[in-house]
Amino acid sequence: MKIKGQTDLDSYAAGMHNCLSIPFDDLLAKGFHTRQTDVRPANSINTAMQLVAVIFQLQSLQQFGGVSATHLDWTMVPYVKKSFFKHYIQRYLEDQKEFLDLDIEDMIFSDYDETIIGENGKKYVISRNKFDDWCDEHRDEMLERLGLTKEDFYFDNKEKLNPVYYQSAKKNTLIELKQAVEGMYHNLNTLQSRSGNQLPFTSINYGTCTSPEGRVVIKSLIQGSIKGVGKFYKTPIFPCGIFQYMKGVNDKPGTPNYDLYRMALQSTAKRLYPNYANVDWSGNAGYDRNDPCTYFSTMGCRTSNGLDINGLGQRKDGRGNICPVTIIMPTLAMEADRDVEKFMKLLDKKIGEAKDMLIERFEWICSQSPKSADFMYTNGTMAGYIPEEGIRSALKHGTIVIGQLGLAETLQLLIGKNQLTDEGMALAKRIEQLFKDRCAQFKQEYKLNFGVYYTPAENLCYTALKKFRDKYGVIENVSDREYFTNSIHVPVWEKVTPFEKIDIESQLTGYSNAGCITYVELPSTVLHNIEALETIVNYAMDHDIPYFAVNTPNDLCDDCGYQGEIGETCPQCGSTNIKRLRRVTGYLTGDYKTAFNLGKQDEVKDRVKHNKEVRV
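Above: the chain's sequence. Below: its structure in token form.
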């Protein structure tokens, strides 16, 4: 009987890796290459935001998992400034006497090509016109006369700039920013990838940039989430928004971005996003507060990058998960005759076998030609690529991870109780410590980033359960439902408060260094009690939860657009054409009843609300 599951086995033969945090700072600043053309560096916030969507799509075609931006607020700051400068100059030029005498139509349509040298030292052919030349000439005159440079044009430099031009430029920049974010949201919910099979699984991390430009980016991203997309302003499925909670930056009143944290909570209550990444999580120790590339971030579902043994430290950009394998622990418990010591010995053996499977798959991926993922290796979206050394030079910085399924059911088989009891928790910690110790050992021995991964098991929770039941029959609190519990989670049917669930899972999340998530189920009424939601998120962060999410009912009538918690029929029009948006794993799904198998559907139906003692 199968006791290990190769995740996304259909991608094995193709030699594809799983997921990646994309180095947007470099790609937007230097430009990038595609099979058809070169893309110039971004010179405005609108262009930058649209290129984010393009890059997300292009990279998603090179792999089978998710793609993320690790600090999009910081990334966008230079392009907010570029747009501000451009709008300031335009407003200044409109005040010039000769502007009224220009033949605008003739000048704008008088195109010609010009070769320029980009910041990356490469030549680009750009299209210009006579109006561009006139603008540049008068811009340079203005800068020289006033003793200004391009670097003087930023929001905090109001005293040095003309107040009328400043106000006009800021207004137009903010309008452009809002439109750019709206465009990105719509693009990421409509662009198809993987042969038209699905949308790119995209995530954006943000929340820590405290510059005025960074703050408006955060505000626009959250507002875009709250507003929704389409004619009914639906909750965006993508990107998965992730607010980076950071002590001294946004965690409490008086910190620079606390107001944006409160805004994020409002979005979570209405749209389920953003989730919350704990920048100060103990598992990300050693990060550089001056370098947002090292801040804790995730790739949406739960995957994250830990300390790189091959030289990149806590850097997240350009790294990702290469391949996972999952151990189905309830099956092991039966193979061990439900004896604890036999189980631990067998688990140790299977962890070793999982390691061998991962190395074999890693070597297979490394054997592929760089042409198999040409966009990725040509543009360095995976960090560290050295052509002379082959693609292993980049892949070695990613993680190869050992996941697990069904801790609660395993404990039930071994000792008749799960991790909600002291005895169950003690055994759970022993099991997780073995995973952690072995991955640390393998990491040093093979100089590869082995990690412990708390598997989402979107399909495996059901397929593994069916095989288990076929062999062992129905066992109470083990195989009497249509699914095994994901990784170390409290079983969804257990009636606990949000704080109790956090207390239990926070004792186990520290054993994972390659990705985990903790979530709580709340009623729709949380929309009117942001203080209660803040209390819960703060409690999770204070208890060292690395990645936290809140689930609330989010239903939509497809006939009239009514949104809220809907029963069998729409309270506004009586329709039964209802889409029920739920977070089944880390991402949202359009309708969990059609997107997932019977196991996940039953798991969602069995989930109890963790709404006791959540009044503030």
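The first helix runs from residue 24 to 30.
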